[in-house]
Write a structure and sequence with these properties.
By secondary structure, the protein is α+β, with helices and mostly antiparallel strands. It has a single domain (4-92), classed as GIY-YIG endonuclease (3-Layer(aba) Sandwich), CATH 3.40.1440.10. Helices cover 39% and strands 22% of the residues. It is built from four helices and three strands. The protein has helices at 24-32, 39-42, 57-69, 72-82, and strands at 4-10, 16-21, 47-54. It has a three-stranded antiparallel β-sheet, sandwiched between helices. It starts with a strand and ends in a 12-residue tail after the last helix. The relative contact order is 0.24.
Length: 94
Amino acid sequence: MRDYYVYIMSNHSRILYTGVTGNLVTRVWKHKHRVYKGFTKKYNIRQLVYYEVTTDVRAAIEREKQIKRWRRSKRVDLIRRMNPTWRDLSDDFD
């Protein structure tokens, strides 16, 4: 079974970006190396601050949409529960 990830990335100013992917390590690498044009490149979004995993792609997409609809304060609370210091969780990748 394949895993799908809903993730939140940030920058030094704590601007947030929420996304979904089937390969978290590769997606984070692409954000860090500014492969994608647009929002994440413009705002230098490079820190993985939150993620969750599921084996259901539809559930991952729905969860991403749900999180994107939330107020910023609710997204910040979600991050703080998993990652109170806002450390870059991708530092744990091999």
